[in-house]
Specification:
The protein has about 210 residues and is mainly beta. It is built from 1 helix and 14 strands, in the order αββββββββββββββ. The strands form 2 sheets. Strands 1, 2, 3, 5, 10, 11, 12 and 14 form an 8-stranded antiparallel beta sheet that branches. The longest helix is centred in the N-terminal third of the chain and has 14 residues. It is globular. The N and C termini lie far apart (about 35 Å).
């Protein structure tokens, strides 16, 4: 089953031209194409890493996050590529799924999230001590998002000091100022399944961090 999902994802990526807007920093701080589980990701029941993908297997109406436990950064340009699943043949309406980058992470309970939905919208939110304390951008429409089943999207957060710039597939969608964590911080990815009746998968095919 896992290899079937991954094969469909790769096929979708090739169909979309494999277009990737990489992070632009001169120095590579972290890079992972998820060929194995050696990249420093938390070992969780809902997450599998290997064969070219980090995959969230999500029950109905569930969200999972994964902060990298081995790498810390300060000023950084964080990029991740996600691929929408093709879905099941019996689905009458597409499941609403979300895929996100985590940044300015202090621990597994405190971080910021920038994500896209497969209905063409994006969001930016903050989690503190395990609770969502603020939504900076909620369900904002963006033509930059690829919504078709099997399509890929590259998310990018350029975080330098107090300045944040957000990109989707190379298109700048928002710039913000904020209070970065003191010292270094952690990055990661997340998956959301908003279907209240059915499980789903959300997967990432690569991640890169530069400065």
């Amino acid at each position: 089953m896992r290899r079937t999902v991954l094969a469909l994802a790769i096929a979708g990526l090739l169909a979309s031209g494999g277009q990737t807007r990489a992070c632009e920093g001169a120095k590579v701080l972290f890079e992972d194409t998820f060929q194995n589980d050696g990249g420093g990701w938390s070992d969780k029941k809902a997450v599998s890493v290997g064969d070219g993908a980090l995959t969230f297997t999500l029950p109905a109406d569930d969200m999972q996050s994964n902060l990298n436990v081995m790498f810390n950064v300060e000023d950084a340009d964080v990029c991740a590529e996600t691929v929408w699943p093709h879905g099941a043949a019996h689905d009458e309406t597409p499941q609403i799924l979300g895929a996100g980058i985590l940044f300015w992470g202090e621990d597994n309970r405190s971080y910021y999230q920038f994500g896209v939905l497969n209905n063409g919208r994006y969001w930016i939110a903050r989690k503190k001590d395990g609770a969502w304390v603020g939504t900076i951008a909620a369900n904002i429409d963006s033509p930059a998002i690829n919504t078709a089943p099997g399509a890929s999207n590259t998310l990018r957060v350029d975080a330098k000091g107090s300045q944040l710039i957000f990109y989707i597939n190379g298109t700048k969608v928002r710039a913000l100022r904020g209070q970065a964590p003191k010292g270094s911080w952690r990055f990661g990815v997340s998956g959301d399944n908003f279907d209240k009746a059915n499980g789903a998968t959300v997967l990432f095919t690569k991640m890169k961090v530069t400065n």
